[in-house]
Design a protein that fits this description.
By secondary structure, the protein is α/β, with parallel strands linked by helices. It is built from 26 helices and 24 strands. The strands form six sheets. Strands 4, 5, 6, 7, 10, 11, 14, 17, 18, 19 and 20 form an eleven-stranded mixed β-sheet that branches.
């Protein structure tokens, strides 16, 4: 390392700068666990030695020079923070700085020790079973991140994530947990809790004999299963499956049971890091056609007629759930979970208008519903939706799960438990590829390469989960009912997400998606290319790859900041600095000054292409909307656009002193003027406190163009 004193002559300084450039060419780049790739900087080592050990600057400089020489002479091609620390510790030991070495030693565990825990667990507590949650409790997430980057992923894959070419979601759980899952409620209703006999770590409850017990079992399952997943969990068509339990009950009894379901789900702190689990329920006002002739599971797990016999009870449950969401909790605060998904079909709009009008009241009061619109011609007659907004038709699931073409004929998806999920998600940094390309042809070539890389990472996840299911690391998922595992890899999707289509198109054409047909059409071609690529890889690999609009709660901020660093002259981002972000997935820029009707139409026309994870956000102003006007807008969206999924989002301010929730995102209570308030808004796919948002999402929240429903016709 060359030290340049401030007073050295100009010519000597130039010579030393030249030497420094020569040395930099010999030194490898450094992969940082913080999520970046940086140029090797010896001063960082020198500074950390002084700071962490108290060694004087002169000695620290000499030690740093020894470290640099060691790295150059070794010919190392790959460096990471932990690797550098090991070399420094070795030099400290060789130079007899033993006490300093102890202070500088990295606290962690060798890979071999981690693998021992991974394969055999720790006999630390007889009351603690070996499962993903306990393993991560022992080893901690940082170790899991480093393990994935250093041991599971190869250098190209790790570099792509750290450098920002793509983003591997929930990297810390890559080695152990699937992502998200939609469960069939019948599994619990028929077999009790837990539904598998192979997991004897807790007491076994028999099938529920009443509606109250049934909803308690369903809520508890969403908590129990958290330890084996890294993402959300949910139930589809819950009003249909609970209908047999509601027969003969009063309106008050049904409503109290629905309160039990919502409160029980919200009061479980069982998810990663003590979170309330990310959960969802989808609701219909009547029994869907595919379930009408299916045997109905009723109290005590017994068959009692068919689900078509319980249309009245299905509607009663639908209305009761809406009432519970309208009321909120004891303080009048909204329920963030489970997500309340409302399915709409064309023939239901008129028949169940009173019930849908009540849902409009929920929108105006709490903003909690999500709408899955099954009215457009391109939508299948029956949709199976997941908590992460991915949805499939019955035929898609049959094709994916039943490999024998003969057995597919006349198959009814509901004849078996319908459990679908996403095994892992990897998101593509679409703007980055525009910065790297010279033209559109280059862009699609780079995009193809990055999708292949994403698929390679996803296949590794598949192979890992296949192994974990066999070795018992996922005791509930590998549990069986009637000889069949409740979690099957063939039911899983390998999800490829993306962020920043708007900025990618702007980089390539100088136009954003909303500005004209040039940008919008290129955006459409990029989406079609990615879907076609997923289909090609699915046919080739025999695994289901799917493109979806990943919520990207933190990804859009992380990737934008990395691009500002690595492509400062080319990066096109929203906001700036630490709050920089890319527009999520294929969304139009949130503050684009265009009419709401145009935003809904253009956004909706992308939905038939992507299908998975799509959503159109309608950000609402402070004024409470007219219920009838809201209903007319909803019908217009459902009947006259291609929009598959949408949500209205008002902001709210909750004051714990007044115990009231007020419309609008003000950081001061309008009643008592206290600043000790919580502002709530929808961050991606759920309501959360705005003060918990990352800087990018906070900037996006501030930029949103909010609409006054009164001005919409």
């Amino acid at each position: 390392m060359v030290i340049i004193p401030e007073s050295e002559p100009i010519e000597e300084k130039r010579e030393n700068l030249s030497k420094r450039g020569f040395l930099n060419n010999l030194l490898p780049r450094v992969f940082r666990t913080e999520g970046d790739v940086v140029t090797f900087d010896p001063s960082k080592i020198e500074g950390s030695i002084i700071k962490e050990t108290g060694i004087n600057p002169e000695s620290a400089n000499e030690l740093t020079q020894l470290v640099v020489r060691r790295i150059i002479s070794s010919g190392i091609k790959f460096l990471s923070g932990p690797h550098i620390r090991e070399i420094v510790c070795s030099i400290l030991s060789e130079e007899h700085y033993e006490e300093a070495r102890k202070l500088y030693t990295r606290i962690g565990m060798p890979l071999m020790d981690y693998e021992a825990i991974l394969e055999k667990g720790i006999n630390e507590n007889a009351n603690q079973d070996m499962n993903p949650e306990s393993i991560h409790h022992w080893a901690a997430n940082r170790i899991s991140d480093e393990y994935a980057l250093l041991r599971i992923l190869d250098s190209e894959e790790a570099h792509a994530h750290l450098y920002g070419d793509l983003h591997i979601h929930m990297l810390r759980y890559f080695d152990l947990r699937p992502f998200c899952q939609e469960w069939d409620p019948r599994m619990i209703l028929e077999h009790g809790l837990p539904p598998v006999d192979s997991w004897a770590h807790c007491s076994k409850s028999g099938p529920a004999g009443s509606l109250r017990v049934a909803v308690t079992h369903l809520a508890k399952w969403l908590g129990i299963i958290q330890g084996e997943f890294s993402g959300g969990q949910g139930y589809d068509y819950i009003t249909t499956f609970l209908a047999p339990y509601a027969r003969g009950l009063s309106k008050r009894e049904i409503e109290q049971s629905m309160q039990c379901l919502i409160f029980e789900t919200n009061q479980i702190f069982a998810a990663r890091g003590g979170q309330v689990p990310f959960t969802s329920i989808s609701c219909t006002p009547t029994v869907p056609d595919g379930l009408i002739k299916i045997p109905a599971i009723g109290p005590h797990g017994k068959i009692n007629g068919t689900y078509g016999d319980y249309k009245v009870e299905c509607l009663e449950l639908f209305d009761a759930l809406t009432d519970v969401y309208i009321q909120g909790d004891h303080n009048g605060k909204l329920f963030a979970f489970p997500k309340h998904e409302i399915k709409i079909k064309k023939e239901w709009l008129k028949e169940f208008e009173p019930s849908y009008l009540k849902v409009m009241e929920e929108v105006a009061t709490m903003g909690t519903p999500y709408f899955l619109n099954m009215c457009p011609d391109w939508m299948p007659d029956e949709i199976h939706s997941q908590c992460c907004r991915k949805f499939l038709s019955g035929n898609q699931i049959i094709k994916q799960c039943i490999l024998d073409p003969e057995k597919r004929k006349n198959a009814n998806i509901w004849e078996n438990y319908v459990t679908i999920g996403s095994l892992q998600s990897v998101s593509l940094n679409l703007p980055r590829y525009a910065y790297l390309s010279n033209n559109e042809e280059d862009y699609f070539h780079i995009l193809d390469e990055k999708m292949e890389l994403a698929a390679r990472i996803l296949r590794k996840k598949w192979n890992l989960m296949e192994k974990r299911l066999k070795t018992g690391h996922l005791p509930l998922c590998s549990g069986k009912i009637n000889g069949e595992s409740i979690f099957k890899l063939k039911d899983q999707n390998l999800s490829i997400g993306f962020t920043g289509l708007n900025e990618a198109v702007q980089s390539l054409t100088n136009f954003e998606l909303h500005e004209n047909d040039i940008g919008y059409s290129l955006g459409k071609r990029i989406l079609e290319f990615m879907v076609a690529k997923c289909n090609t890889m699915t046919e080739r690999d025999g695994k289901s790859y799917s493109l979806w609009e990943q919520p990207s709660e933190s990804t859009s901020n992380r990737l934008a900041r990395l691009d500002l660093k690595h492509f400062p002259k080319k990066a096109i981002v929203q906001s700036k600095g630490k709050s920089a972000y890319y527009t999520n997935s294929s969304h139009l820029r949130y503050d684009a000054n265009i009419p709401l009707s145009e935003r809904i139409r253009k956004q909706g026309d992308y939905h038939p292409i992507v299908e998975g994870g799509v959503i159109t956000h309608i950000w609402m102003g402070e004024q409470k909307p007219d219920i009838q006007g809201l209903w007319e807008l909803t019908k217009n969206i459902c009947l006259n656009t291609n929009t598959a999924y949408f949500a209205y989002t008002p902001d709210f301010t909750f004051c714990p002193h007044c115990r009231k929730m007020f419309r609008g995102g003000d950081f001061k209570c309008p009643q008592c003027l206290s600043e000790d308030v919580k502002v709530y808004s929808r961050i991606t796919g759920y309501y959360s406190q705005v003060n918990r948002y990352n800087p990018g999402k906070k900037a996006e929240w501030e930029a949103r163009k909010r609409e006054n429903i009164y001005n919409i016709s």
